[in-house]
Design brief:
The structure is a homodimer. By secondary structure, chain A is an alpha/beta fold. Chain A has two domains: about 15-230 and about 350-425, Zn peptidases (Aminopeptidase, 3-Layer(aba) Sandwich), CATH 3.40.630.10; about 230-345, Alpha-Beta Plaits, CATH 3.30.70.360. Chain A is built from 13 helices and 15 strands. In chain A, strands 1, 2, 3, 4, 5, 6, 13, 14 and 15 form a nine-stranded mixed sheet that branches. A four-stranded antiparallel sheet of chain A has the order 9-11-7-12, covered by helices on one side. In chain A, strands 8-10 form a two-stranded antiparallel ribbon. In chain A, α3 crosses α13 (about 410-425) and α11 crosses α13 (about 410-425). The longest helix of chain A is centred in the C-terminal third of the chain and has 21 residues, at about 310-330. The two termini of chain A are about 20 Å apart. Chains A and B meet through β8, α9, β9, β10 and β11 of A and β8, α9, β9, β10 and β11 of B.
């Protein structure tokens, strides 16, 4: 099978909402932190809570008769095989790890919806033209290495990145030892690189995720279809002025580096809203030297990032940041420099997969919204090697990465149902006319 | 003798410029740091370099036949006695300690000019109606306790402050042991409080200091006569917004605490220039929470201080800061709070002493400028208990607390000469008409 199929009348299967919602609540309870300790839950990769969630997934998969495996990058998956040994596999996935004090559904929603889809497919007995597999990717949140599992599986992990991941993990010897016991190949860099799947073995990739932003809720729509995952650039902007005594230096002769930095920080949001309405830019931190009450700041370093769905928009954001930094430094007679610290390109989703997702939502009569993803996802790794699409469901008040993160149960169920419908159209042979 | 005398034709004595300038260079070389280590000099209180400078002072004083003593707060002084045991003493003074990487003349100028004044007076043999004493105050720069020596001598040190000073000094056991050996009473809190001088034992206090700001240089004037030492208030301004994902939260729905802080930081300088032109306000530092690239800042804490010569101006600055903080927080839909962290009142200089200093400058034909002191000085402690005045000489480019601090030799000499002339008018009996 090549490409994304089109099938106007696939069979209608139904997810079992009660079973699926119960799974979500069970996993949300794993790694829970007391409110007094900040609340939410913490399933950092390779922690004991993380493995507990993975055991829950593997147990559910085994009970549904699925093949369970752990690959050399630690990705856990459950598989419903294809008709032949060389049939490609449609991957579903997301991640069971969380940030500290994370919310209940970030990552877990996509993994458990995938499990539910596989269960329904298995129970239906309908013949499929390819395999279907749900993957819980290792360390999506980047405790040791951003999108580590999906980077490895998609063949984009370098040996240097694997070594750096293991070095960072080495700071948590218990967690690393636990992972080495469970993961085939013991997480040696050579073994990790073997997690790569050849693109021809894959049919495509679908991911259901919470939006982590407020757009769907504000639009009153339950399904978002991702157009692209934002590219991201980050910089350190350094402003230099002149250190002076804060008591003896009149205002009009100062060259205050912090005032220049403040000018940029303050001007940026309004300008971005007007110039690149679909993009974002954030000043997340600032460090001042010498950073005391009684000295006019001689240096200020601002941490800036910008994200957008297209290269043209990212270029426009970068250009605007440079122009505003120059103007702000000039206004205090100071100097400035912008040093790039990270860069990732925008990742468009596959148009045919987007069309498939739209058809699935339309068949259920569910309104949906095309929107870009401001957050990074495993889908951006898979999109480089196989036709990829993403579904979003609404985050209440747009909150995420915090205990307050929430998605209403009806939206969780609709998300899983549309995912199932899309998978069915993809993998089930059209009936002979 | 009560009050500040007026004597239209005091005898004219001359300082020995060469001797005085050589003393300054000798002390400037003590504690010097290599350029590779940041340059300047470092004579932190009780360090070995600090005592080396004090030994230089005591040696010079002994050779001039002066009485040398160290009081229980570690203040080093040299004294030319009065005509009777109960005659009051006119104090001259400043400090030999420096900040790290300090300049050559901050503090040292006033101490060594005082030594020179005493030498010339002693050599002149002219009868005096009071004693004259030069004091090198302990820890003016506040390594362990702001204005510690002058606070103790003027009876304004509390037992709690003495204990806190000793606790901080205890972090440097070698320095503290060295000080305890040399200081009578061994720096016990009880002993330190004995450094207090009864106000009736003093005639007044005069201090020559570098300006540490650019006003004299910009006015092309060699002598500044201080009108008042600025009062100072400092605060922590806390802005609260809402932490959000920096990739997924559109610009228009954010409540960014750092943007609010930036608004205040950027608006303040222009407003202060217009509203309180003689005052200053500075944002010296800012701390952002969580302070990472990819989270919209939920909290930002700004370190603010304001200084002015009058209570009315300080109140106006505080009011303006509050109004601007409220407006900035409101603009992002956030909250704010201002917490006071320190407060000192403005200290006016004695009008009769200012008039005496003006007469001394006028007799030499030296133009002078009335100006407030933006920095704190030992004079602000002495002014509470005895008639006090301060002379400033220009700082090149207004620099201080850095290796680049400099005052031209001719200005150093004029400063010492005007100080001598003022002392002569103060302490020499008018000739019978």
């Amino acid at each position: 099978m090549n490409g994304v199929p089109r099938n106007e009348a696939p069979p209608a299967l139904e997810i079992q909402a009660e079973r699926f919602l119960a799974d979500l609540e069970a996993v949300a309870a794993i790694g829970r932190l007391p409110d007094a300790a900040g609340g939410g839950r913490e399933r950092r990769p390779f922690s004991s809570a993380h493995w507990a969630a993975r055991e829950f997934l593997m147990d559910g998969a085994r009970r549904a008769g699925l093949e369970v495996q752990i690959d050399p990058a630690g990705n856990v998956s459950a598989r419903l095989p294809g008709p032949t040994a060389d049939a490609p596999t449609l991957l579903l996935g997301s991640h069971l790890d969380t940030v500290p004090h994370g919310g209940p559904y970030d990552g877990a929603l996509g993994v458990l919806a995938g499990l539910e889809v596989l269960r329904v497919l298995a129970e239906s007995g309908i013949p499929r033209r390819c395999g279907v597999e749900v993957v819980d990717f290792t360390d999506e949140e980047g405790r040791f290495g951003d999108l580590f599992g999906s980077r490895a599986l998609s063949g984009q992990l370098t040996r240097e990145q694997a070594v750096a991941f293991l070095e960072r993990a080495g700071a948590y010897p218990e967690d690393l030892a636990r992972a080495r016991e469970r993961i085939p190949g013991g997480l040696s860099p050579e073994a990790v690189l073997q997690a790569r799947r050849p693109p021809e073995s894959l049919a495509g990739y679908l991911e259901l995720h919470i939006e982590q932003g407020p757009r769907l809720e504000r639009a009153g729509v339950s399904i978002g279809i991702v157009t692209a995952i934002f590219g991201r650039r980050s910089w350190l902007a350094t402003f230099r002025g002149r250190r002076d005594h804060a008591g003896t230096t009149p205002m009009e002769v100062r060259s205050d580096a912090l005032v220049a930095a403040a000018e940029l920080i303050r001007e940026l949001p309004q300008w971005v809203s007007e110039a690149v309405p679909q993009g974002v830019a954030t000043c997340g931190n600032i460090q001042v030297d010498p950073g005391v009450y009684n000295v006019v700041p001689g240096r200020a370093v601002v941490w800036i990032e910008a994200r957008a769905a297209t290269l043209e928009e990212l270029d426009r954001l970068e250009q605007g940041i440079r122009e505003r930094a120059a103007k702000a430094a000039g206004a205090v007679g100071g100097q400035w420099a912008l040093r790039s610290t990270a860069r990732s390109e925008p990742t468009p989703m596959d148009p045919a997969v987007r069309a498939l997702l739209h058809r699935a939502a339309a068949r259920r009569g569910v309104p949906c919204l095309d929107l870009p993803s401001g957050a990074g996802h495993d889908a951006q790794m898979l999109a480089r090697i196989t036709p990829t699409g993403m579904l979003f469901v609404p985050s209440v008040e747009g909150r995420s990465h915090c205990p307050q993160e929430f998605t209403r149960p009806e939206d969780r169920v609709i998300g899983a149902q549309v995912l199932l419908d899309a998978v069915v159209e993809w993998v089930v042979e059209p009936r002979a006319a």
